Amino acid sequence: DVVLTQTPPTLSATIGQSVSISCRSSQSLLHSNGNTYLNWLLQRPGQPPQLLIYLVSRLESGVPNRFSGSGSGTDFTLKISGVEAEDLGVYYCVQSTHAPWTFGGGTKLELK
Amino acid sequence: QVQLKESGPVLVQASETLSLTCTVSGFSLTNYGVIWVRQPPGKGLEWMGIIWRNGNTDYNSALKSRLSINRDTSKSQVFLKMNSLQTDDTAIYYCTRDLSDYWGQGVMVTVSS
Question: What is the three-state SS of chain B?
Fold first, then answer.
């Protein structure tokens, strides 16, 4: 199974600060059809996860554009340009290129 | 409006079988797959399995021997069955559309010894 390694496990930020989260895969997530199926989710406390980014860099409808995704192959990054209070929670990367799909271990974003 | 809602028992005895239902609305199960994901208390997300829009299934290799996912397209329902439950199967169980764009609220299942 594909292993996704997220770093850091915990991230402390002030409001307005820009932060990045890394997601590294144990194998390439480039599908034979040319797409890379790497998504980013945010789970706020007590809530189900919500989709932020799909196909590495595409912003889900309704998600603020301070969120951006980048990367290719095995290395991916989620960036938040100017953290807001509503962004606090746990961020997960998830791959659906290879079955079974797998999640990263999560990165908890908290206020400094 | 797309919605998913999990239902089922909140307390199950160890060694018994868990049966959960995911009832969807706003889309057809013949157009989208549905995934089951679980989350033990205070821990991360675990992908359990998917039933694709064509009815085929894929399972987490660690759960494959105990898990089955089926559906009734006429009722817009997806079913999860997992046998031989243990206390470490205690978790919130979510269903989500295969694009991960819509999630149910989840159901907390406790396995009692």
Answer: CCEEEEECCCEEECCCCEEEEEEEECCCCCCCCEEEEEECCCCCCEEEEEECCCCCEEECCCCCCCEEEEEECCCCEEEEEECCCCHHHCEEEEEEECCCCCECCCEEEEEEC
Confidence band for A112, pLDDT divided at 50, 70 and 90: confident
Instruction: Say how many CA atoms lie within 13 Å of A56 toward its Cβ.
Output: 18
Cβ pair A48:B105 closer than 8 A: yes
In this prediction, residue B100 carries a pLDDT of 86
Chain B CA closest to residue A41 = B100
Residue B99 has pLDDT above 90, yes or no: no
Rounded to the nearest angstrom, the minimum Cα separation between B5 and chain A is 12
